[in-house]
Model the fold of this input.
Amino acid sequence: MVTISTPQDAPRAITAKPEELRDSRYENVNIWHALEALHQDGFVVLKGVVDVTHIAQLNEYMCKEAEVLVSSNAKPFNQGVNSNILQGPPVLEPGLLYDDVFFNPFVIQVMNAYLGEKPIWNFMTGNNALPHTAGLRQPVHKDIIFHHPQCPFFCIANVPLVPFSPTNGSTEFWLGSHASTAGADQIAAMPGDVLANARLRVGEPTCNVRAEVVEARRKIRPPIQPLCDVGDIMIRDLRTWHAGMPNESEQYRIMLALGYQAQWYPNHTLRTKLPLSRAEFFMTHGGQPVEVRADLLPDDSDFGKLNDIFSFKPSVD
Done:
């Protein structure tokens, strides 16, 4: 019997059967329900699809790294709010490169169904909600600063490294907001507006959704903060509204972010930055049906900073 969790005002969650976990592949019914969730909600949680020991090892490494990044002010705050930094995974550490994290077969199977055959993996970063940040939250936004297609063209898979709850800053998601949103919903860029990791054009959308649009949506379907366990992966359509939330706990709340693009979408320049010494791991992509678009660079490159700079815009206006 397929187990589908669908409580009211919560994201839909897909739980694999034992034989699906054994085969590293969902059967048709679970793909059906995952697609319903993405098309209707712009968001789905895949339960228990990553080895929890892999997650624990990544979290231990990245929490130690976060201490250095925060104490040295090496990272700008994300979305201009002093509670959240971008922090990508450790791509140089061979002992921390896991297929079920970087090339998860369940994620890639769902992406092939939602975005079309052989989606492109060309984006990687991570998000760290810093501890003791009560009262600090991001504005409701999309990670898009252009007039985007109003159909599925890009998705983000978030891999939480700790259990997610409102207490430690589980991201706020506005389920279903992707289905009708357009660039006109966002605040237009004005002279002098800046983003830490992108260039704004005057008159084009900024990330932030207009306040009146947010309040109108709130009356239809208010936002949620999902509960997730270690081993889960969250997938969101890039168009889905969301916001980083305060982390009132004592610990870092880190989630990885892997981006998948539809083959038809005309962004030909976005490439994740990876170390040449790890080319064999990344370019064989765990044997999964996904195209890797990456720049392979010398190992002394600053991959954390390089992968913080990205654009989802079409390559040609």
Summary: Residues 144 and 207 are 6 Å apart (CA to CA). Residues 52-71 form the longest helix (20 residues). The mean pLDDT is 93.
